[in-house]
Amino acid sequence: MSRQLPTTSLPGQVVFSSGHPGQPLAFTQLSSYGATYGGLGLVKTSRRTWQVLRRSGIPVPQSQAFAPGAQSSAAAYAQRVGFPAVVSSLSGVHRRTAYDVATFKGEFVAVAERVDDQVLVHSTVPGELLRFMVQGEQVLAVTGKGHRGAIEPEDLDPSLLQLAVDAVQAIPGLDTAAVTISTRRFTDTDVRRKALVERVMRSPHLRDYAGGSTRAALRLADKLVQATAQNLGVELPPPTSPVVVRLRFTGVPDPEAFTPPLSAMITDLRNTTPLQGLTTMTDGAELHLKSTAAQIGFIITRAILGFDDAAAYMVQTMPSARIG
Length: 324
Fold this sequence. Notes:
This protein is α+β, with helices and mostly antiparallel strands and 324 residues long. The chain has eight helices and 16 strands.
């Protein structure tokens, strides 16, 4: 996934730099798919986030936090805001929906048993619960809870897509995020009255939009990289284009344990030819090879994840030449 960009890493992240100071492309490894997901942003969803959104005119739920033992007060509040009502932790985790007073008790107790602090009760819109993957001013993917079949952004009313984009832009420093919106129908045009922005998560997971498909996750990852590069004015080669690069792996606590499994993995990769043997250094290793941009991205990611307890803290790529 490096797409021939100079690459370095930070703890827990793989950072693809465009080469322009102050304009990094940041992605975090999603090990379950070997893919990446957007990792830039400053704010996680909370009632404070709703306050920020509300000041920008974004429709958000009515909400109130209750002590785990305040079930009666919480039920009375849910009746005031109207059912269905959502019960969750303050961060929005452990979400459960109560459709009437009779079911509210069980849902509240179920959440209260799983939280250490307060229980959040908030309003919602009965109908569709949609999650949007937003980057900049565009929606890259959409998924719906309990919705059969794929949902394409083109299937939704443009005003609903714009609401998701507006929610991200309302939070300072946020560029890539997952936005959860409840709406009566995803073809509604009056979204400011018939939809609520319930969550804005700063790290959208590709697996949420891929339907369990590794191939779909990789396609979405490529779409994310392409969109970000376009915004930065960076021209990327096709992922299958052969390139020649020099990779330098540093910050390795035990290079002697790191280089053998790395070398074996590279030997097994298709369309990858070492032009110089893997050289062990004091704090890592260096390698000169010809491969595709996608395979180079895989090598970088795998080196950072490590082999047993041996991993690289930083990987630098130095493109040598473009081939064919």
